[in-house]
Structure of Hydroxymethylglutaryl-CoA synthase:
Amino acid sequence: MTAVGIDAIEIRSGRLRLDLAETFAPAKNEDPEKYTKGIGIEHSSLPDVYEDIVTMGANAAKALIDRKGLTPDDIGRIDVATESAFDNSKPVSTYIAGCLESVYDGDFHHANKGERKFACLSGTQSIDDAYNWIRAGRNRGRAALVIATDTALYERGDPGEATQGAGAVAMLIDEDPDIVALSTEQGYGSADETDFLKPNQQFPSVDGKRSIQVYLARMREALEDYESVAGDTHPDSFAYFPFHTPYPGMVRKAALLGYRHITRDTDIEEALAGDIGLQPRESDFDSREGYEEAIRAYMDDLKATSRYQAWYDEAIDPTVDVSGQVGNWYTGSVHLARLSALRAAAADGVDLAGQRFLVGSYGSGAQAEIHAETVQEEWRDSIDPIDVDDQLATRYDLSFEEYELIHDVHNHEKEVEVEAFTQPEAEFVFTGWGRMNERR
Ligand code: HMG
């Protein structure tokens, strides 16, 4: 069976930067380490006045098309994953296609375009749709362009404000991919939840503490479902575990629970029993009275073992590196986690070809999806040219007052005019709500 997966990736970060320790923490009268250590975010990316989900998505897509030397005829499908859409009828992919058609010969008239929504999960769902379309043989030899693009903004004063971010990840899904091939096996954990939602509102209503529990519960269900089709997982079977990263502190919790789950009944559990004694069973994690304290103590002990810490440092920490520099990109977040791991391996000179990732995607509302990916021979040549460092280093540093202004500019309910903080550089820019077709 021919491999299908991710053939190319490009990102576009919002061009502004909020420093959580230097700028946000003093204004909120908080200890900077709450953000840098507890939550794990040093900087958030935010869009300048001429950027939005369309321009960031179109700019990432253009970089990808140019690098791969594609023409519009090579692309048979454009799916945009977003939870920041401003149009309840026209999908964001049509706006992005319009931008791209203004700079290329040819058009996307025979490409299937859509918009996918399931909170942060829909980037992965769009990849799944593209995978199925190619596997079904309906693609006529063409590839699919998947663009995950969001401005993750919270009401000012909401605890989620510290986790904001903005950016787009464009990915080409194709046969014989250069970066990773996707597994056929998938696992899901899905339930109707109301801890994070935006019913006819721009900013989310969030029960932050509960959202953490819902994330962990759905991820665990998805992992169990994945194992029911793919067999038991083992920590050594995967080089990295990229998870949806609303903030790195969330991944620290998910990793600990995941590790406990995948080491059960293995040689590692046996060794851990020697290290820390207590061995609560899976059923103990259902929060039954009397067990809670023992489980918490066990998890604290587990976290402190050198065995767990070595695994975390190797298999998890590299996946949250970029996230800690940009904040939550919602639909793009798990795809940044994958990219972050690939970049770390490239920087360390590790040859990942043939190694596997276990990818955990999540969207509030709520659903988790787990699948495996196998890194391809050409991965390094595809990852090296992505200008992540450059984009992050050239962001404009906002003062707190400027941050509040730009937050208002992107609040659809306010009409605030502010000069741009940066200069566009041969890119698509937002030219105004009344002139949707004039994006250049
Ligand atoms: P909070 O309540 O202000 O923060 O906001 P906190 O008091 O819980 O502190 C956060 C962490 O920092 C804690 O660590 C503290 O101990 C630590 P933990 O106990 O959790 O390991 N801390 C410190 N560490 C070092 N030095 C200090 C210090 N002070 C505290 N001085 C909250 C946290 C997550 C509630 C908030 O950011 C929030 O509401 N975020 C938005 C919701 C969210 O991101 N939820 C995550 C799961 S849901 C999800 O991922 C989906 C999502 O992406 C949306 C979608 O799918 O569309 C959000």
About this structure: The pocket of 3-hydroxy-3-methylglutaryl-coenzyme A is lined by residues 31, 33-34, 37-39, 83, 119-120, 159-160, 162-163, 196, 206, 208-209, 211-212, 215, 244, 246-247, 249-250, 328, 330, 362-364 (CB under 6 Å). The mean pLDDT is 94. The longest strand covers residues 165-175.
